[in-house]
Every structure is written in C-alpha cells, then in structure tokens.
Design brief:
490 residues; alpha/beta; two-stranded antiparallel sheet; 15 helices
Length: 490
C-alpha cells in the first residue's frame, strides 16, 4: 500500500506538471521567467559577492551592441518622395488693414504627414520592331528582348519579387494574394503563383548553394529545427516535415534553411558534410554522430536548460527558482560581455563566469540526490549535468554565444507563417519555401528590403555571368549599392 501511494503521488505530480504547462502555454506568458515574488530568488541574488560584478567593458566589438529605440515619434526617412502642399492665406488677408500695403512673407511652418498610395498594376508592352530591305525583301531583322526571369511568362520581375516577399517575408498565403489581386481586377490563380514560386526557387538555386557554402565556412554555426505539416497524396491527412535553419557567424551573415521529410539525423549530416568548427544547437540526439570525430565541437544552449527549470516551478518552486537565479547571473554577465571584442569577452568569462558555473555545479550535484530522477526538477538537473561539457564550451572562445538564440529567432517567422499558410503542398514545396525564405531572412538580417533586392536580382540573374554570380549575394549586393551611393561618378 505504501508503494502504491508513492506511485499515485508521483503520477499526481506528473499530471499537475503537465496541466500547469498546458495552462501556461494557453494563457500564460511565453518568456522563460519565474515570478519575482519567489523569496529565495531574491535571497540568492542579494548574497552575490560584489566582486562578481563585471569589470569595466573592454573595447567594443565590431558589430556593436544593441541600441534602445527611444520614445516619441521617429523621423521619417529622408529618401521618401515628398509632395509639397502650400496652405496659403486668402489674398484679402495679405493686405494690411491699417495701411493697405501688401504683407511680406517672413517664414513658414512645415509639418509632415505620412500618406499611402495603394499598390497598382501596370502592363509592360515589349515591342520588337521588324525591318526588311524594301528592294530585295530579304534580311529581316528584329529587336532583341532582354532575358526574362520566367521566359515567356506573365509576371515581371517586380511582380515576382512582390509575391515572394508577401508570402515568405510577410507570411501572406497565396489564396489571400489571389483575393488582393482580384480587387485590382487581375485574376491570377493560386496554383499559377505556386508554379512561379517553384520556378524562382530553381532560378535562385545557384545563389542559394553559394550561401550554404558560405555558412559552412563559418567558425560557428547556429542551428535548430521546427516541424511543419506537409500534404501527402498517399495519406488522408498531412504528415510532419522539418525545416532546419543554419545561421552563419558575423563574418558570414547568411541565414539559410533546409527542408527534410522527417527529423532523422541524415538531414543535418548531409548539410554539414565537410564543416569543421563549433555547432551551437540543442541536445537533439541526431547531432551526436557529428561530434564523434572531434571535427565539429558541440556548444550547448543555456536557454534550453533554463526553460526546463521554469517548467519545474509548479512542483519544485524553491529549487527551480534557485536554479534560474544561478543561470540569471550568467546572463547578466553576458549583457556586459556583449559590448566587448571577442578576446575581452573570453577573458571576462574565464574570470567571472567560470566561478559561477563551478558553484552551480556543486549545487546541482547536491540537489540531484534529493529529488526523484523522473520528476520535472530531476529531469531538468539531469539534462544540465548530462550536457555540462557542451554548456561550458562557450567559455573557450569569445565568438561563441551563451545560447542558441540566433537560430531560435530565425525560426520564429516560420512558426508565424505556418499559422497562415498552414502546410506545404509537397516535399518539393518545402524545399522551395526553404530556398526563398533563405533570401528574405538574410535580407532582413542585413537591413535590406527583400522586394528591392529580389526585383533587381530577377532582372539581372538570367544574363549575369556564372563566374561572377557571387556579386549577387545579398551582402555583396548591399556593399555595391553603398559604394555606388557614395561615389558621385558611379
């Protein structure tokens, strides 16, 4: 009976934990935080040694730290076209009522108002005159039409760029675009636009492959994956495919996506073939084979570890709060380290973060003996201890991060888009989406308008020499634009 009561208590705790997570997912905040009302958290933070405060930051890193957005109305871009509308006084008011002389203008007050002109269609008529000799009636010549993104296709480069940007950057499914275009009197079926997307993905595939090779040249790659429904003609329901993201380091600022039909290890193994360096990821067992020969070094994610303690708060509030407080000390140190160059960041971590990790490890070793292994807290501690070497690897190099936030942030738009377009139509559609989203996400990271970039690429890529195709990569394209804007003779 005592054993039965123990089993029932464990089952009750498990169900309470699951219910708490479901309620938090449905109604609560998504941030990995524990209530500040936990007294033990304040006690632990209050007892932190003053010497643990970070030293004065070293030289700033090349990329610079994040800046606050500030408050109030932000100024409108200077490059926006402006239409001057003068609200002059009435002619009779320009006459002085006392001396009857005309008043002189002494200044003006200017206020700005942002206006919007709805997008509109127009038709390009490609006219190719023909010429022939009027005497012998031979030698007919005709003007040459430039190469098109879709040869003999209906859409122009701007229209193609708009559809790609709308779906993969703004998450508008094709059926909504079909309705938007119909309001303008242009009827285009979603199936037709789906074919355009597949064709543009093939057109951009050589650039996509170059972006993938650039990411594989990185010192550090951040990766993560997310499920996505895929239609299957052999099934009466959708099956689950995977979208994988691979984010390069600061010297290779590309975000590329890959699609696989399942979550087997073959996907990342195929993509990362030939890569040598650091791989920052979660503790997915499918990556384990990549680390065996030492060519790829595993870097753990403290955000994943912290999330497990937050989820254990309902059943183990005190110890969960203590664990989160330990991890919070590491993140506070990273706030200062983020403004440093890599060498100073590594030195700060060795001096300040390493003692914190050693103290946390001692607490974990003691606490793991006091909790049940299968309890939420026991599983959280087990995850941390089993991945301890990977979680500490960020101390080795200043170019490494404390968590895998870059990859998780790169996958958020996919999760948002999934709520709109719902599923991929096929495995080919998944790969099409991965290719096109790689360009919109990279443009976003580089502060490039994806429509402007894609329109220019669609105009040029068909006739661009293959041995100079690297010039069309997003970062090279941006550098060329900046150089042209600074050179008056360009």
């Amino acid at each position: 009976m005592a054993e039965k009561i123990r089993e029932l208590n464990l089952l009750n705790e498990k169900h309470k934990h699951q219910l708490a997570q479901l309620l938090r997912h449905r109604f609560g905040q998504r941030a990995d935080r524990i209530s500040s009302e936990q007294l033990v958290l304040w006690v632990l933070e209050a007892t932190e040694d003053a010497s643990a405060a970070p030293e004065k930051p070293g030289p700033p890193a090349a990329s610079g730290g994040p800046r606050g957005r500030g408050h109030g109305r932000r100024p409108l871009p200077k490059d926006l076209p402006r239409k001057r509308v003068v609200h002059d006084v009435a002619p009779e008011e320009k006459i002085c009522p006392r001396c009857q002389e005309e008043k002189r203008k002494i200044g003006e007050e200017v206020s700005e108002q942002l206006e919007y002109v709805p997008a509109s269609f127009y038709v390009i008529e490609n006219v190719r005159p023909k010429y022939v000799c009027v005497h012998c009636e031979e030698g007919v010549v005709q003007g040459r039409k430039p190469m098109q993104a879709i040869e003999k296709g209906l859409p122009g480069p701007g229209f193609l760029a708009h559809v790609v940007t709308s779906k993969y950057a703004d998450h508008l499914p094709l059926y909504r675009l079909e309705g938007i275009f119909a309001r303008h009197g242009v009827e285009i079926r979603r199936s037709t636009m789906c074919g355009w997307m597949a064709y543009t993905a093939e057109l951009l595939a050589p650039l996509y492959e170059r972006m993938c090779r650039a990411v594989l040249s990185s010192k550090v790659i951040f990766t993560d994956d997310t499920p996505t429904p895929v239609q299957d003609r052999d099934l009466t329901r959708t099956r689950t495919g995977r979208i994988w993201v691979y984010v390069g380091d600061r010297q290779h600022r590309y975000t590329v996506y890959d699609y696989t039909a399942d979550r087997s290890r073959d996907g990342p193994a195929r993509f990362l073939e030939g890569f040598s360096g650091y791989l920052q990821a979660d503790a997915y067992p499918g990556y384990d084979a990549l680390y065996r020969d030492g060519r790829i070094k595993e870097v753990g994610c403290w955000a994943h570890s912290r999330r497990r303690y937050v989820e254990a708060e309902m059943t183990h509030p005190v110890n969960a709060a203590i664990a989160v407080a330990w991890i919070r000390r590491l993140y506070r140190l990273e706030d200062a380290a983020r403004r440093m160059d890599p060498a100073s960041r590594q030195a700060l971590r060795q001096q300040r973060a390493k003692p914190i990790l050693e103290g946390f490890k001692e607490w974990l070793d003691r606490t793991v003996l006091e909790v049940l292994p299968k309890s939420p807290l026991g599983q959280a501690i087990g995850y941390t201890l089993s991945n301890w070497a990977a979680l500490n690897r960020y101390l080795e190099d200043g170019d490494l991060e404390i968590d895998n936030g870059r990859a998780e942030r790169a996958l958020k738009p996919t999760a948002l888009g999934r709520k709109n377009w719902l599923f991929f139509g096929s495995d080919r559609g998944g790969q099409t989406g991965a290719i096109l989203k790689s360009f919109t996400a990279t443009c976003k990271d580089l502060k490039i308008d994806p429509f402007v970039y894609l329109r220019d690429i669609f105009e040029r890529i068909s006739a661009h020499p293959m041995n100079r195709l690297d010039e069309l990569l997003p970062d090279r394209w941006l550098a060329e634009r900046i150089a042209s804007a600074q050179d008056p003779a360009a």
